């Protein structure tokens, strides 16, 4: 019960500060009055629940929600930040790997998501590099969705029976 009050308390305090700053028109923070900031508040609440409240199951949602909030802030402020779907898999991989550090579960899934994220993020560069050397990797574009489905089905139907 104490763990739930920590999460709720952090979120209420965060939202209160957010609305207070917005109400008083604090100008130097005006770029933070957006919905990604609300995601950051909720995500940080989960991370505090995970690390301060020692409820390590909250690491994954905390990292994912915080990561998505950070992503949507950075795509508007940093030109070098990729606006790419691979970022979401990268955030999920980070969440699973950080969760593994505390719980000992999720290493394989985190590693697979990390590999998938890197593959997706750098796929265009990889195909351009291969095309410059006379190789055609376009068949991979039609195969990798099926590969994701097969890996997902394996985890759902076969891996949990172990």
Describe the structure.
The protein has 162 residues and is mainly α. The protein has one domain (2-121). 75% of the residues lie in helices and 0% in strands. The chain contains 7 helices and no strands. α2 runs antiparallel to α3 (59-77) and α4 (86-103) runs antiparallel to α5. The longest helix has 22 residues, at 2-23. The protein is flat and about 60 Å long. It starts with a helix and ends in a 5-residue tail after the last helix. 21% of the residues are buried.
- Please tally the helical runs, counting DSSP H or I stretches of 4 or more residues: 7
SSE order in H/E notation? HHHHHHH
* Major β-sheet annotation: none
Average pLDDT figure: 87
Q: Give the strand content.
A: under 5%
Radius of gyration: 20 Å
| Structural class designation | mainly alpha
Q: How far is it from the N-terminal to the C-terminal residue, by CA?
A: 32 Å
Helix content: over 70%
Number of domains: 1
Taking pLDDT < 50 over at least 5 consecutive residues as the criterion, the unreliable ranges are: none
Tally of strands: 0
């Amino acid at each position: 019960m104490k763990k739930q009050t920590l999460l709720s308390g952090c979120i209420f305090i965060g939202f209160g500060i957010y609305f207070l700053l917005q109400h008083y028109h604090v100008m130097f923070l005006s770029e933070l009055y957006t919905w990604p900031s609300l995601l950051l508040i909720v995500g940080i609440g989960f991370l505090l629940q995970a690390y301060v409240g020692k409820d390590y199951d909250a690491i994954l949602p905390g990292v994912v929600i915080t990561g998505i909030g950070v992503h949507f802030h950075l795509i508007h402020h940093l030109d070098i930040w990729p606006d790419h779907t691979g970022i979401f898999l990268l955030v999920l991989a980070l969440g699973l790997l950080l969760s593994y550090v505390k719980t000992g579960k999720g290493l394989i899934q985190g590693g697979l998501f990390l590999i998938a994220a890197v593959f997706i993020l750098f796929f265009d560069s990889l195909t351009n590099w291969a095309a410059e050397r006379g190789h055609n990797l376009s068949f991979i574009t039609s195969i990798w969705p099926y590969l994701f489905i097969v890996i997902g089905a394996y985890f759902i139907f076969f891996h949990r029976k172990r």
